Amino acid sequence: MTFPHLTLAQDPHDRLGLLRTDEEWLARRWAEPTSRALVIAGTRVRPGADGLDWVPAAQAPDGVRLLLGERDGTTWWGVIVSGDVAKAEPERWLPLRGLLPVLSGAAVREAPLVFHALGLAEWHWAHRFCPRCGGALAPRAAGHELVCADCGKPQFPRSDPAVIMIVAAGEPGSPGERCLLGRHPAWPEGRYSTLAGFCEPGESLEDTVRREVQEETGVVVGEVTYFGNQAWPLPSSLMVGFQGRAVSEEIRLEDADVEDARWFTREQMREETAAGTLVLPGGVSISRSLVESWYGGVLPGSW
Ligand SMILES: [Zn+2]
User: Fold this and answer.
1) What is the pLDDT of residue 260?
2) How far from 118 is each of 154, 157, 165, 189, 248, CA to CA, in Å?
3) What's the pTM?
4) Does residue 26 have a pLDDT over 70?
């Protein structure tokens, strides 16, 4: 396996952005027998036997059509219907977080399409009214714009930049090198993950890394280098991964979001993940990729 293995950034579809306003083209493609649509009840979708339940677009129910794009000769769509559909069978309709195990397995190639569709659906769900005048918003551009019926101001989907980082201390590559992981108070015992946080207005991503690590653990970070990024629409983040070098190692816990933080050597990480006393985030997360990239191989177990 090569690193970084950013699962969700692999295998992108052609988004066909310039065709989103061509109503005649959209109608023709929707009607093609090979077109497939994912029905989204509010912000939830229904897994099938092996992956997601994509249906021929022409057989999909009425709703807000989202053109996702083209891949493998198929045109892929989402269609947003009322969230009430999911309320009738709540155990069958899952939000994106509940789908992550499905998307980590055989259906991993569907992940970029599903993240695109549910990222848009989350945005539609959370943006009902114009932020300038309070008028009702209506979709256009195949679901990629919302426009105010009163003042005409358009709204566009947003991705909020968040940083996620692996911070290391000690001689790089040496047996004594260690990395910093933390845990949220609400997590089950043994779960640890990389630290993360949102970029603030006027702040560079590298400074966000340094500020978040210091706020959450008291550790001071010097050099920060870019690792990779992937979409994380839970509900609207773009996770930008970094590697940082610590210039201090003393841990001070003052942030209520971090219950514990620890330095792990590779040996400790190997032993504790094998024993199940350390449980790392799942395979599609950039956190997993950051940790395994630093460790230098695949580790057992996940959330
Ligand atoms: Zn308005």
Assistant:
1) 97
2) 20, 12, 25, 30, 40
3) 0.89
4) yes
Ranges assigned E (strand) in the chain: 36-41, 54-56, 64-71, 74-81, 137-140, 145-148, 154-155, 160-169, 178-183, 195-198, 221-232, 237-246, 260-265
Measured at the alpha carbon of residue 75, what is the angle toward residues 72 and 81, in degrees to the nearest 5? Answer: 135
Q: Which residues pair with 168 in a beta bridge?
A: 179, 245
Q: Is 64:105 a contact under the CB 8 Å cutoff?
A: no
- Cα 154 to ligand 1 centroid, rounded to whole Å: 8
The CA 236 to ligand 1 mean position distance, Å, reads 22
pLDDT in tens, 131-148: 999 999 999 999 999 999
Can you tell me the distance from the alpha carbon of 284 to that of 230, in angstroms, rounded to the nearest whole number? 10
Tell me the backbone φ, ψ of residue 279, rounded to 5 degrees: -120, 120
Give distance in angstroms: CA of 148 to centre of ligand 1: 5
20 CA distance to ligand 1 middle (Å) = 22
Helix, strand or coil, per DSSP, at residue 209: helix
> 23 by DSSP, 3-state: which?
helix
Q: What is the DSSP string of 35-91?
A: -EEEEEETTBB-B-SSSB-EEEGGGSPSSEEEEEEEETTEEEEEEEE-THHHHHSTT
Reported as a single tens digit per residue, the pLDDT across 78-130 is: 999 999 999 989 899 999 988 888 887 778 888 899 999 999 999 999 999 99
